[in-house]
Design brief:
The complex is a heterodimer of chains A (about 160) and B (about 290).
Chain A (H helix, E strand, L loop, with lengths): L7 E7 L2 E7 L5 H8 L18 E4 L2 E4 L12 E3 L12 H9 L8 H14 L5 H7 L11 H13 L4
Parallel strand pairs in A: 1-5
Antiparallel strand pairs in A: 1-2, 3-4, 3-5
Chain B lengths: L8 E3 L4 H10 L4 E4 L5 H6 L7 E4 L9 E3 L3 E5 L4 H6 L1 H6 L1 H9 L3 H4 L4 H7 L7 H6 L3 E6 L2 E6 H4 E3 L2 E2 L6 E8 L6 E8 L7 E12 L2 E10 L6 E2 L1 H7 L6 H14 L10 H22 L4
Parallel strand pairs in B: 1-3, 2-3
Antiparallel strand pairs in B: 4-5, 5-10, 6-7, 6-10, 8-9, 11-12, 12-13, 13-14
Helix pairs in contact in B: 10-11, 11-12
The chains are: A alpha+beta (about 160), B alpha+beta (about 290).
Chain lengths: ~160, ~290
């Protein structure tokens, strides 16, 4: 009765483009993005859903891609940090992180930006408390957070969510 | 050491009927997996003993919130975000909506489910004291049919529930009779976000003619299972909230719980904080009963 798990073919839409992958169903979305699709902007921090480095949007909702088995992402629309810039033009959030010093070592930055994007899509004019709550699942060990909060405020002022 | 994905089977039948048929065919073999906020952590750490998993994520029968005249039925795979965004849950069951906001950050709230929090059966589950306070009932489903049990009777001990190996929680039923109650929810942890609680309280009360007409106090992380403080409630019910009663309630609450020392806190701290939170709740409740 027991059969060995086999790899399956899946289709996803990643940053607006069709992607076909072959993976074991329990493979993590994070690993598929990084290893198969070579989208290495998404980082692995803790690997247990505590730090937010691997945050991506799945069907418009922020998720930790380290906790998503790829089977549950079948057919989903995924947005990673690579999907934000238009050609050479950075997304308002990316530019704001640069302007405000919101990135130092950079490991948390892609996840931080995705969490901020998710927040601004739900709440285009967030209060400081909204921003703190929206980013509460994303840990940064460099900046002390002040510059990150300023960056999100700057992006909200510019009013571009995507 | 990290697990190899090739050692695990995961299937997603897509409908509840097929999932329960699978559980009935091979009882005890398949581990249900919803948002993965707990199971995927065990998996990543190489500690997941189950080798065959069945996905409940986005099953239409489990991800819905139905409102009828008498109760709100929350599908077990509804996420914390679903609860927070639902107008009637937020308005009539604020203890539950507040607890949903305590749980992890936004990404985990988008994936973690109420049913998952219940079957995980941790004494520190954020939503569980709220379910006790609202006297929630659970509809359990299997290939053989359904049964309804009180949440109070469902959670048996540390990580132990009445769920049979071929069963799933289908719906969490919340009776709509608490809209007029004062609701108090407070979680005490090492930090205000992303921390597992040292003590959490969910309480409801109603004052009439200067006396406590009804009161429910539920506490998490102070015993092997979240508990209702029935003796403390008994002491308070029908009385006026005088300072002497508050002191007795503080002592009764501290005596009623069964806290332990563990990595997050100590029994002494938990008893002191539980007493403080009960008094804080009663002080706030008292103010709702006095003329403004």
């Amino acid at each position: 009765m027991t059969t060995a798990p086999t790899e399956i073919d899946l289709h996803l839409k990643v940053n607006g483009e069709s992607a076909n992958v072959r993976a074991y169903p329990m493979e993590r979305l994070l690993d598929v993005l990084r290893n198969q699709l070579r989208l290495t902007g998404t980082k692995e921090g803790c690997g247990e859903g505590e730090c937010g480095s691997c945050s991506v949007l799945m069907n418009g909702e922020l998720v930790n891609s380290c906790l998503v088995p790829i089977l549950q992402a079948r057919g989903a629309e995924i947005v990673t940090v690579e999907g934000l810039a238009k050609g050479d033009r950075l997304h308002a959030l990316q530019q704001a992180f640069l302007d405000c010093g919101g990135a130092q070592c950079g490991i948390c930055t892609p996840g931080m930006i995705l969490a901020a994007l998710h927040l601004l899509q739900k709440e285009p004019q967030p209060t400081r408390d909204d921003i703190r709550e929206g980013l509460s699942g994303n840990l940064c060990r460099c900046t002390g957070y002040a510059q990150i909060l300023e960056a999100v405020e700057q992006a909200a002022r510019i009013g571009s969510t995507g | 050491m990290r697990s190899h994905p090739g050692e695990y089977e995961l299937v997603a039948p897509g409908h509840l009927e097929e999932v329960v048929a699978l559980l009935a065919r091979d009882p005890g073999v398949w581990l249900p997996l919803a948002g993965g906020t707990d199971i995927m952590v065990q998996y990543a750490a190489g500690k997941l003993t189950a080798r065959r998993l069945v996905s409940l994520w986005n099953l239409p029968e489990l991800r819905r919130i139905d409102v009828s005249e008498g109760e709100v039925g929350v599908g077990a795979a509804s996420t914390y975000t679903d609860l927070r965004r639902h107008g009637i849950v937020a308005r009539e069951f604020p203890l539950l909506a507040t607890a949903a906001g305590w749980t992890g950050g936004v990404a985990n709230q988008n994936r973690g489910t109420l049913g998952g929090n219940i079957v995980n059966a941790s004494p520190a589950g954020d939503s569980l004291p709220a379910l006790l306070a609202y006297e929630a009932e659970l509809i359990l489903v299997s290939a053989g049919g359904e049964r309804r049990v009180r949440y109070l009777d469902f959670h048996l001990g540390y990580k132990k529930t009445r769920l049979a190996s071929q069963e799933l929680i289908r719906t969490i039923c919340l009776p709509r009779r608490y809209a007029g109650y004062y609701a108090y929810a407070r979680k005490v942890g090492a930090r205000s976000a992303q921390a597992i609680s040292k003590v959490s309280v969910a309480a409801l009360g109603r004052i009439s003619g200067g006396l406590v007409e009804d009161v429910r106090i539920a506490v998490g992380s102070v015993a092997p299972v979240p508990m209702r403080l029935v003796e403390t409630e008994q002491l308070i019910r029908g009385k006026g909230l005088e300072p002497a009663l508050l002191s007795s309630a503080r002592r009764a609450a501290a005596a009623e719980i069964r806290p332990i020392d563990d990595i997050r806190s100590t029994a002494v701290y938990r008893a002191a904080v539980t007493g403080n939170l009960v008094v804080e709740f009663l002080e706030q409740l008292g103010r709702t009963g006095s003329p403004a």
